[in-house]
Amino acid sequence: MNMNMNPNSELVQSAVNVPNLVQVPDALISQAQEFQRAMMMYTCAIREVKTKLEVLNDELSIKNQRNPIEMIKSRVKKPLSIVEKLQRRNLPVTLESMMNNLDDVAGIRVICSFVDDIYAVANMLVSQDDITVIAIKDYIKNPKSNGYRSYHLIIEIPVFFSEEKKNLRVEVQIRTIAMDFWASLDHQLKYKKDIGAAADEISEDLRQCAEVIAATDQHMLQIRKSIEEKSARQSK
Predict the structure, then answer these.
(1) What is residue 120's three-state secondary structure?
(2) pLDDT value for 3
(3) I need a surface site. Which of 83, 188, 197, 218 has the fewest CB within 10 A?
């Protein structure tokens, strides 16, 4: 191990504190300083995208007299999760491999009020000329088999540093409040170890709940549009 490396770095602490979960190769540990710089870069990429989303939200709040975005959450993937994902894909566990192969190291979750807000925000974001769209997965129109719904974007954005410009990828997930509530509950239950034979029954219950939530989202959208139409007629 490089003796000049910061012993408090997140990568080193992960390797020291949780040695049995994932094997962190010496080659990656020796890159700890470079890894920290990469994480800083991804954090800056998140900041750039969040600023764009906040500007859009502010503009639309004036234009439409309401905020389409209720909340923006963000995270940079933890070192152990990065190593585990690379190993699961049989990819080299190196810094270069991480930056070339993983699109979700930097992640942003956008929580919207209504389904049409999801598409409006996504379209305005990807229309900006400094953003490159890498991939789109619409799990709202095409839900996963377990009922999961969300709109996923992989985008690339330039970030300017003191001596270079770096194009970095960010995963953006856009969903309604109800979709986010369902996904959070589904995530929690996946990691419960003691549900045993009840797992299939719970999964089916969750799938049915997802259908109810999707119907409720559409109904709420119809109610909002009805209110807007009546308000527009009265103001004439």
Answers:
(1) helix
(2) 34
(3) 197
Question: What is the DSSP track for 142-169?
Answer: S--TT----EEEEEEEEEE-SS-EEEEE
- Per-residue tokens: 73: 């959450």
Radius of gyration of the chain (CA): 21
Place of tokens 């527009």: 232
Catalytic residue among 48, 54, 96, 171: 171
Q: At what angle do helices 10-17 and 32-63 cross, to 10 degrees?
A: 110
Amino acid sitting at position 92: P
Q: How many CB atoms lie within 10 A of CB 45?
A: 24
Instruction: Please say if 171 is a catalytic residue.
Output: yes
pLDDT beyond 90 at 132? yes
Q: Sorting pLDDT into bands at 50, 70 and 90, what band is 15? A: very low
Name the pLDDT band for 33 (thresholds 50, 70, 90): confident
Phi, psi for 66 (deg, rounded to 5): -165, 155
Length in residues, the chain: 236
| Crossing angle of helices 10-17 and 79-88, rounded to 10° | 70
Dihedral over alpha carbons 217, 76, 16, 188 (to 10 degrees): 0
* Distance between CA atoms of residues 131 and 126, nearest Å: 6
- 11 phi and psi, to 5 degrees? -65, -45
CB of 222 closer than 8 Å to CB of 205: no
C-alpha torsion sign, points 97, 102, 103, 106: negative
Looking from the CA of 11 toward its CB, the CA atoms found within 13 Å total 26
Please report which residue ranges of the chain form alpha helices under DSSP H.
10-17, 26-29, 32-63, 79-88, 95-101, 115-126, 177-190, 199-235
